[in-house]
Design brief:
alpha/beta, 5-stranded parallel beta sheet
Length: 277
Amino acid sequence: MLDDATVNEMEQSSSLNNAVDGDIDTEADVIIKAESHFNSNDLQEELDLLETGQFDAVVLEMDEESALQASRSTFQDCIVGFPLFLFQFVYTSVLPLIATAAKQNVDITFTRETDANIINELPGYLPGVVQGIVISLIIGVIGFSALAVMYTDVWLVGLSLICYLCIVIIPIVIRQIRGRMSGEQNRNELMAQSVTQVIQDTDGGRVLFPVGADHASPVSARLPSNIESDTVPVANDFFTFSALRQFIPGLLLSLVLFFGIWVALAGITIISVLVAA
């Protein structure tokens, strides 16, 4: 006859595996759920895992300010948050996870306090350099648009668009660089530290960590040797009908927003120049 501990372990294993239709190590301290940020199937698996009641905490790969819809008050926040704003139609909302975690009395932790940390934690004078470059690009968007009207030169319109595109790309590039830097600057290292701290705070409780698929293995490799982890793969590969069906409509809406903002900025500048003339 099975003892109570064995029965309990079997029940936990069954509920966790049913949530993702896979094989999860019930002894793991942290379940890393690899995800495509745009895929609602990954979000559903994460919700199903939380609803098993087998987790003490969830760590979310995002800033606390955005999750709580607090206002961004610094220029650095705006720099990092602008691409996220543009691609809001691509990303799935984290609010269902927060609501489910609260319902299950699961502790919620975020990997960073604000988006500004991505820039502010760069070494030396780099935070100031990044801000200076972005300010110059904003001036470029406005300035080249004004010059395009004055000299009726389509190439100047193109330069305005390139400046605008660089404003969007810079924070994305910084994120990628932070994922490849060594030591405390490495984003994967910082996320692993966040997960480790949460496990310690919950006295060894089980933690769910939904994270972008590219970060899953690097974060797992950086966890201390005394913390056991298991990784659940993404629900769908990117080049599948199910994934592309969700990604492409959101991308198209984001492109409309991207060009709409640029046209508005350039249009206001052009009208101002014409009025002044």
